[in-house]
Design goal:
four-stranded parallel β-sheet; Isoleucyl-tRNA Synthetase, Domain 1; alpha/beta; four-stranded antiparallel β-sheet; RNA-binding; about 15% strand; 15 strands; about 550 residues; 2 domains; Rossmann fold
RNA sequence: GGCAGCGUAGCUCAGAGGCAGAGCAGGGGCUUCAUAAGCCCUGUGUCGUGGGUUCGAAUCCCUCCGCUGCCA
């Protein structure tokens, strides 16, 4: 039995989830977690809402509500999405808990005592009217590069260039329009430069990482790590635990990654014997994130852990690339996105899980199109897998009074299929252990095709009139294969596997053993119904035009 | 502007020096248990462009074009 920590990227609680989030960071860890639980390993899968940061405070100020209200709204929406999509967190918390603040401050203090955090003075925009320092996004002005007005202190949306707020021409406060002054402000910095060589040595040893993650991280090191400010002049966030700095907060990028640890501690109710086995010794930590988050998880968080000491570094960071939508880059500001709450109003969770697994952006960007979604649902999920299950189970009901047929001697053809099923269990096992999700799904679907071929060759609808026992044997073999599919597809398609587990009259729970359960002969079965619904192709056009109608 | 990645069949994507692959779509046939589902047969692809290395390049190197990302 192993301890597997599954650390999942923390979604920003300032907007709804879209399919890019799911394909990139949320579906893969769920598949991985369900697999490991079925294998009998101890799994701790944690994440939570990222409650801090200026996008949230800005949104709150624009809406005239508190940041906490914004966070609460999306946090409960996230929880609802996880439940409906079957994302099986052991704990999905938030960075606004007292526990998280305590753990973050503990790490801050320890790094400060060890000299990995130091103070420095930096120029900062200050609004004399609002009487406060302005974080980047609170300053608007004219872009020094392209000359367009309305550029923000962190970036110009017009030309897409990142900026420093002090570079803006004609800067003004986004709240009150006053022209800000530049004042010196004292901040704390993380001494990342101290970890340069340690990190390089460590990363170069991670041969099991995906090449994109490895190369990306090494490139950062080639450029040389620079120390970064970890505090801000803002009043929403985790307070800096140093006397005289009460008005400052920890920068989100420093504090949010600590959430993996603080959530583990929260999950264990603070009991060290509960959480530490996931963070030390042979325990392995897998960090599931999108590619935009790579440096935080392969460089910054490991540096923090090295400095803090006593906790495992990430074992793997299987970062995914991005999902494009109908061939175009996903954009939340232009509303070019498929929102998960919207999806879940109209469709079941498993078809999306299937599509995104089959087309997961593991090695490069991949595309989501409604056309493809419908076709994968109707032509693969329904036609190949769902129909195999349905034709076998309805046949058993009609001709064997709904009882598992008692098998006679299994011939070479049947045995060959059973061997193929056993091999598939191994293939999917290995693929999942290595986070090769697409490969595992491909292998599972290939077995479903074999099942259909076998039925075709046996034609039980013919033989049942003349050879009841032989036909029963064929059906038993087919049901055994279906049972194997139930297990290997469970991590991907938990909802339909749960139903199939019942339809097959199997013992125990669908979540339990990663093994091939055979149906019990003569057992009475509940009446089956179709595992998946076929979708009317008319829906494609409706979805596409809804997407294109958005501004 | 600098750096990196990608560009393979109508579509979505694998493959990474040794006869170009899968699924889906399309075409032909068989079947009728099943959600008009299933099975069999069916691929003339300048592997983005142009060059180079090699006995041999989709694969390695360089140029250019296009897309994406990171950085300035």
């Amino acid at each position: 039995m192993e301890h597997i920590l599954i650390a999942v990227a923390w979604p920003y609680a300032n907007g709804p989830l879209h399919l890019g989030h799911i394909a990139g960071a949320y579906l893969p860890p769920d598949i991985f977690g369900r697999y490991h639980r079925a294998k009998g390993n101890r799994v701790l899968m944690v994440s939570g809402s990222d409650a801090h940061g200026t996008p949230i405070t800005l949104r709150a100020e624009q809406e005239g509500v508190t940041p906490a209200e914004v966070v609460d709204r999306y946090h409960s929406q996230f929880l609802d999405c996880w439940r409906k999509l079957g994302i099986s967190f052991d704990l999905f918390t938030s960075t606004s808990t007292p526990n998280h603040a305590r753990v973050s401050q503990d790490i801050f203090r320890t790094l400060l005592e060890k000299g990995y955090i130091y103070k420095n003075s930096v120029p900062q925009q200050f609004c004399s009217n609002c009487q406060r320092y302005l974080p980047d996004r609170y300053v608007e002005g004219t872009c020094p590069l392209c000359g367009s007005s309305g550029a923000r202190g962190d970036q110009c949306d017009s030309c897409g260039k990142p900026l420093n707020s002090t570079e803006l021409r004609d800067p003004h406060c986004r709240i009150c329009d006053t022209t800000p002054l530049i004042k010196e402000s004292e901040h704390f910095f993380l001494r990342l430069s101290a970890f340069q060589e340690l990190l390089r040595k460590w990363i170069e040893a991670q041969r099991h990482w995906r090449p994109n993650v490895l190369n990306f991280s090494l490139r950062y090191l080639d450029e040389g790590l620079r120390d970064r400010a970890i505090t801000r002049d803002i009043n929403w966030g985790v307070p800096v635990p140093v006397e005289g700095y009460e008005g400052k907060r920890l920068y989100v990028w420093f504090e949010a990654v600590i959430g993996y640890l603080s959530a583990s501690i929260e999950w264990a109710g603070g009991d060290e014997a509960g959480w530490r086995p996931f963070w030390s010794g042979e325990a392995r930590g897998y960090y599931f994130i999108g590619k935009d988050n790579i440096p935080f998880h392969t460089l910054i968080w490991p540096a923090m852990l090295m400095g803090y000491g006593g906790l495992n570094l990430p074992y793997n960071v299987p970062a995914n690339e991005f999902l494009t939508i109908q061939g175009r880059q996903l954009s939340t500001s232009r509303n070019w996105a498929v929102w998960l709450p919207e999806y879940l109003k109209s469709y079941d969770p498993d078809p999306l899980r299937y599509y995104l697994s089959a087309n997961m952006p593991e090695g490069g960007d991949t595309d989501f199109s409604w056309q493809q979604f419908y076709s994968r649902n109707n032509d693969e999920l329904v036609a190949t897998y769902g129909n195999l299950v349905h034709r076998v189970l309805t046949f058993v009901h009609r001709h064997y009074s709904g009882e598992v047929p008692r098998p006679g001697t299994i011939d070479a053809g049947g045995q060959a299929l059973l061997n193929k099923a056993a091999a598939t269990l191994d293939t999917v096992d290995r693929a999942l252990a290595e986070c090769h999700f697409r490969e595992g799904l491909r292998a599972a679907m290939a077995l479903a095709q074999e099942g259909n071929r076998y039925l075709e060759s046996r034609a039980p609808w013919k033989s049942v009139a003349t050879d009841r026992e032989g036909t029963g044997t064929s059906l038993y073999v087919a049901m055994s294969v279906i049972s194997c599919l139930k297990t290997v597809l469970y991590p991907y398609l938990p909802f339909s596997s749960t139903r199939l587990h019942q339809y097959l009259g199997l013992e125990g729970s669908v979540e339990d053993p990663w093994e091939w359960q055979r149906p019990t002969p003569s057992r009475g079965l509940p009446g089956p119904s179709a595992l998946f619904a076929k979708l009317d192709a008319k829906g494609i056009e409706a979805e596409v035009s809804r997407l294109e109608a958005s501004p």
